[in-house]
Amino acid sequence: MQKKSKYIISGIAVVLIGIIAYFSFFNKPKEESNSQKITVGIMNGSKKDDQIYKSVAKTAKDKYGLNVVYKKFTDYSQPNRALAEHEVDVNSFQHIAFLDAWNKANKTDLVPIGKTIIGQGRIYSQNLKNIKDIAPGSTITIPNDPTNESRGLYILQSAGLIKLEKNKSLATVSNITSNPKNLNIKEVDASQTARTLPDVAASYVNGNFAQNAGLDPNKAIFVEPIDKVSEKWINVIAANKTDKNNKTYEKYVKAFQTKENKDLINKLYGKTEVSAWDIKLK
Question: Distance of CA 72 to CAs 50, 53, 97, 165, 211, Å?
């Protein structure tokens, strides 16, 4: 009798295990079984930035069944390193010029898979109302890191103050071929450009530092035009080259590039940043 009871108990145990296995592995909710996960590297930004990324994640979930997880970084050297080491699937924080410079310096093969926004560069002054009022011999400050120094110089060229050697991806002050007003172009740390304004005629101040310094974008004395020259400053979603055509990553790009997100960007940032995936460059 005891032996028979053991068989019965063993049989019941096997049935129970089968039932548990079925509900655990084969009977998942449809939404969970169909969902895909993507980890996106971003910078630790403003509340406005968080609103944009939250909106994109919701669209990705609702429209494509994509579960977006954001990994935030505090240093600009971190997101590309994390991408190259596959700690994140894609990242979204940099413009094309920064990505190109990173690949060259670090021998990586990261590629853009979708455009996001472009923040138009601005030149500010504490005393002048127009870029044309800059007097001969004046000092203008620009950031000293390679990509932002180059951007500052190209903006000065667009403003008609200097001319640069042609076909220079990243320009430096040594590439200036014409400086008719004999301007003193001083390179300083990007975080210090706004602080130099009381002592100089004008300064190119990056968008985030301008915002932190309380500078009014509507009072800039010159605004960078969006054209072929400024194309390299368009921000992108980047991936490893081997993942260039990854369908899951393409879904995240599509979730970013929506009319709803375009309207939200316009609402939150106004003139300081604009959606870049549908602009026509002249």
Answer: 11, 11, 21, 38, 20
Query: In angstroms, what CA-CA distances link 191 with 79, 94, 98, 204, 213?
Result: 20, 17, 17, 11, 10
49-94 pLDDT, tens digit each: 999 999 999 999 999 999 999 999 999 899 999 999 999 999 999 9
Beta strands in the chain (DSSP E): 36-43, 66-73, 90-95, 110-115, 117-119, 122-124, 139-143, 163-164, 176-178, 184-188, 202-205, 222-223, 235-240, 273-275
221-249 confidence digits (pLDDT tens): 999 999 998 899 999 999 999 999 999 99
Which residues of the chain, if any, have pLDDT below 70? 1-35
**277 token code pair:** 């995936």
Q: Where are the domains of the chain?
A: 35-116+235-275, 122-225
The CATH superfamily label for domain 122-225 reads Periplasmic binding protein-like II (3.40.190.10)
CATH architecture of 35-116+235-275: 3-Layer(aba) Sandwich (3.40)
Q: d(Cα 276, Cα 281) in Å, to the nearest integer? A: 10
Same fold across 35-116+235-275 and 122-225: yes
